[in-house]
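Batch manifest, entry 17 of 40.
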Amino acid sequence: MHHLVALSFLLFGAAGVSGLVVASVRGLAAWRALKSFRRNAADGLLATATRIEQLEARTAASSGRTARLAEAQAQLQRSLAEAAVITEASHEVWALVEHVRLLAPRN
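Output type: structure tokens
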């Protein structure tokens, strides 16, 4: 019976040591994975920050272009309105010329 108790303690000790070894190996692998993730994530974050800065610059430039485009559209609308007035006036003059031609005798 004394041998069975000693054998069980020995088996318990071996299981404990093997558990610690497995936990240590997996912990070391997790630590290495975390370090690799940090290194790769830092590069990715730097690239992302650079892209965000580029997008901010493009956004600022496009807002300036948007203002210029709105002004150009307003100018175009004014020009189209002026062209419509001139076209209507030319139609009135042409109609008057046609009336005069109809009333004037031909030689």
